[in-house]
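Quick one - first record:
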Amino acid sequence: MKLRHIAALGGLLAGSIFSLTPVNLTAAPPAKQATPAITEEASAALLRMGQTLRAAALSFQARTIRVYSDANGEPLHIFHTMKVTMQRPNHLLVEGTGDDGSNKLIFDGKTAIIYSAAQNKYASIAVPEGTIEGMMKEAVGRLGVDFPLADFLSEAPAKAFLSGVTAGRVVNSVTIDGAPYDHLFFSQPPGIELELWLSKNDQSLPRRLIVTYRSLPGQPNFIAEFSDWNLNIHPSGADFVFQPPAGAAQVELKPIAAAAPAKKKGAK
């Protein structure tokens, strides 16, 4: 995904499922330079990460914090915890809980279903391409759904993460819970900074991610801390089947409203 967003899964139903509104950032053309200034050490760490995350199936948990400015310019925080289970190439389950309630995103290879426990409502969309990446493109393009960790679930995680990035380096090595990690820093125009902590071994599994938006008011950011990586799971098709709870109502998803023609300056 070329654009970085601040969100959990975007507003989908009235009152919104995963009720955070995504902030779209249009990338400006990078400054002219002979080659991307990404060091060999940083590239190698990301390559190892990408190879690891291309496992046939995996699961992990992530605790996330979205920091944003409200109408008064005051910084506010929204917390989420999510469990992600994926089976390539076309099954995904995201179970999230947070300040806006519990939600699920389920993809069985043909249909993506989004469920809000707080509203006991769900909606579905058909996915013609039939892959996880195709589902993400369909949901983002048609409905404004956003999943900020999607790069890690793509067919080429390292390539997806570096899309739009013009510079990157390893800052240093740190110890987290007794284990060594590489702390990496990347820049993506216009004014997006990414910090990524990868385990200092052959797997290079992500441990932390921080995305900071320097060009937005208040310089908001998105923070994720990963845990419980499992690359040896064997999910069944039944794990990706949605069973509506008692009384759950199915609703139609409305496409994203067209942007208003006014406010040309700074419009996205």
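second record:
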Amino acid sequence: MAEPLDVLTERQSESAVDAAPAGGSLTDRAYRQIEELIVTLRLPPGEVLSEAALMNQLGIGRTPIREALQRLAREGLVVIMPRRGILVSEINVRSQLELLRVRREVERLMARLAARRATPEERQAFARLAAAMHESADQDDDVAFMRQDRQLNTAISQVCRNEFAMKTMGLMHGLSRRFWYQHYREVLDLPLCSRLHAAVAEAIARADEAAAAAASDALMDYIETFTRATLDADRRAAG
């Protein structure tokens, strides 16, 4: 398994944007690595998870693994079934559309707040992240984009400095990334999607609240279009 890429630029400042994903406790490390395995479908929906197997694969002890799985259960990526084990949750398109209704409103608010509240150092880091996302778009690099998407989500959540919005989004990001990873080869324009994400980061870097909100809405418009297209594709396949 490739190690999760926690820092996407060579230059790393002490800002929330650059520093947030790195370091942390063993539980944080276990969470990031298991979450990536699930999001990238290396642990597919319906897979039965073994704490012992994860311990051996990740080189992390039982307690951090267990705590990470409990966190993933709160986010809906795994289901803990007493006396039956731990399963990777299934993917549901209609549930994803309902999730997007909430995500649209919260992401717009968070983008505005991040544009208003980011420090100069954090704005520079958002600009670097936007540049990295443009590079992923140019190279059509799905794995790099997925990791950058996680970093952007984490950065906006922290820089907006609103704990309630941050907790709300934390429940949705993993499910959203996994859905994207399952279906993007069928219907997603990856370079366009990467550039739409970069536009959000660029607006925050410029401290432009209105542009950040508009870029967030444009991104959500595209993600909703992508999600509905997967539903249509599933209907055609079933018919």
